[in-house]
Every structure is written in structure tokens, then in C-alpha cells.
Design a protein that fits this description.
The chain is mostly helical. The protein has one domain. It has 12 helices and no strands. The radius of gyration is 19 Å and the shape is globular. The two termini are 23 Å apart.
């Protein structure tokens, strides 16, 4: 299906923006839900990923606004630590961020041409199962393994390992948020800190992925519906701004079990179809 400026296209872009804004900030995989929606309305995977890349920028901009103070503190500390050897204030640094995003950037670029091959039902089912198991394991040990109760306590090694675990999210169905938070918890990071760290490193990753997808997929997808994509971006931004803080509170203070059950229901539906 090629988008045209009619009521159906506007409705589809609205639904895509809503799905992206909501599923991006929960551990349930935004790409999986968008691909499933695409199959429902006869939009191919490449076009869905292209549209997602536009509307995802709305979520990225909202995250940047909400986490701007944390990012400013990271830059400030990194700069002062570089020029002042006796600087006492502690925080995570740009190096932590780099170590957490480098693995997924490297592996993502190496297998980029094959990622769309992972969007078939069989691979997405496997990814769903893996992502669900990670969430379940982290939920089981979340109260037993809380060694790191402050963002500044995350080590360089832990930052890198979180980045490695995050690479699983290259497969649609795993959820980037789910894998990073689960991985951090399994490494001893308190849940609230894991959630905040996941959102912090999400900004450069999601921005980079969105720009790369737009550049690569624009070769085969026309920009004739550019206005619709911008509308989707604005909708995604608006919804994200309204929901991210509430979402942070929910996933920080409540169990992952509702999301685990939801993912199991999707797995069962996959098996039945």
C-alpha cells in the first residue's frame, strides 16, 4: 500500500504514531506492534520501518526534553573530569554512554541489510520469547539483586555489558527498553536506576537508527507523503510528552508481570495464527 493524502492515510499515520509513542516507552517492542499493524492494513515492513523512523523522532525529541538536565549533568561532569584531576563530584560520563551504545551501533551496521529479514513471523516469535524470558528473569531477581542504587555507581564494564545485551533488541519483538532494563537488573542495578539509564542511552541510539533508516529506505520509498510523516512525528512527540513521566513511574514502581503476561498472550496468538 502506498500512502496518499486521503482519510485512510491520515488515519493510518495517526495510529502508527500512537502505537510508536506508547509502545516505545513500555517493554513490549514498538517495531513488532508496528509491523503487525502494517500486515493488518497491507503496508510492507520496509515502509512501516521508514514511517516508524520519522514518528520515532518525536519520541526522541520528547526524551531529550525530559532528560535534558541529566544529559547536561553528564556533559558537565565529563568535561570537568577531563580538565580537573581532583574533581570530586561523581556521575556517569560520556564514556559510559559510548560503551553502552557502541555494541549495537557496530553490530547494527554489520547486519543492517539483513535486519528486515528478521521481520518474518518465525523470527519475531523467537524474539518475543527471548525478550519475555529476560523480563521474567529480571523480575524474579529484582528484589534480591540491588547492589547499585545510584546512577553514578554504574561501572564502565557494566555499561558495556548493558550495551551488549541491548544488541538482542535488533530483533523485532525483544524490545530495546526491555532488554536494557532487564540486563542492567541482572547485572545488579536497581530497577529505577536501570530504567533511567535505559532512557538516557535511548536518545542517541533511537536518533541514529531513525536517521539511518530514513537515509537508506528513502532510496526505495518516495517522499511524496512527507507532510504525513511530519504529522506523525508531531503526534508521537505530543503523546510522548504527555505519557513518559507517568510511564517512568509505572515501570519503576510496579512489577513487569503485566507486560510479561501481555507478551505471553502475543506469543500464544503467534502460535495460533
Amino acid at each position: 500500500m502506498i500512502f496518499t493524502n486521503d482519510i485512510t492515510s491520515i488515519f493510518n499515520i495517526f495510529i502508527i504514531a500512537v502505537i510508536e509513542a506508547i509502545t516505545e516507552i513500555f517493554p513490549i517492542s514498538s517495531t513488532l506492534h508496528l509491523i503487525l499493524f502494517g500486515k493488518l492494513v497491507n503496508i510492507n515492513s520496509n515502509q512501516i520501518i521508514f514511517i516508524e523512523s520519522f514518528v520515532q523522532l518525536g519520541s526522541v525529541f520528547s526524551l531529550l526534553i525530559i532528560f535534558k538536565k541529566k544529559w547536561m549533568a553528564i556533559f558537565y561532569f565529563s568535561f570537568n573530569k577531563l580538565i580537573k584531576t581532583n574533581y570530586r563530584y561523581k556521575n556517569i560520563t560520556i564514556l559510559h554512554i559510548f560503551l553502552s551504545i557502541f555494541p549495537i551501533i557496530l553490530i547494527g551496521l554489520l547486519i543492517y541489510s539483513k535486519i528486515t529479514c528478521l521481520t518474518n513471523s518465525k523470527n519475531m516469535l523467537y524474539s518475543l520469547i527471548i525478550g519475555t524470558m529476560l523480563l521474567l528473569f529480571s523480575e524474579i531477581i529484582v528484589k534480591k539483586n540491588k547492589k547499585i542504587k545510584n546512577l553514578k555507581k554504574i561501572s564502565y564494564l557494566q555499561a558495556f555489558l548493558i550495551g551488549l545485551i541491548q544488541c538482542i533488541a535488533l530483533c523485532p519483538g525483544c524490545s530495546r527498553l526491555g532488554t536494557t532494563v532487564s540486563g542492567a537488573i541482572l547485572l545488579g542495578v536497581e530497577k529505577s536506576i536501570a530504567v533511567n539509564y535505559s532512557f538516557i542511552i535511548a536518545i542517541p541510539i533511537l536518533f541514529g537508527v531513525s536517521i539511518l533508516n530514513i537515509i537508506e529506505l528513502s532510496k526505495e520509498i518516495l517522499f511524496k507523503n512527507f507532510i504525513l510523516y511530519i504529522i506523525g512525528l508531531i503526534i508521537s512527540f505530543s503523546i510522548s510528552m504527555l505519557t513518559i513521566r507517568k510511564t517512568l513511574f509505572i515501570i519503576t514502581n510496579y512489577s513487569f508481570y503485566p507486560f510479561i503476561i501481555y507478551r505471553i498472550i502475543i506469543i500464544i496468538l503467534f502460535l495460533l495464527i
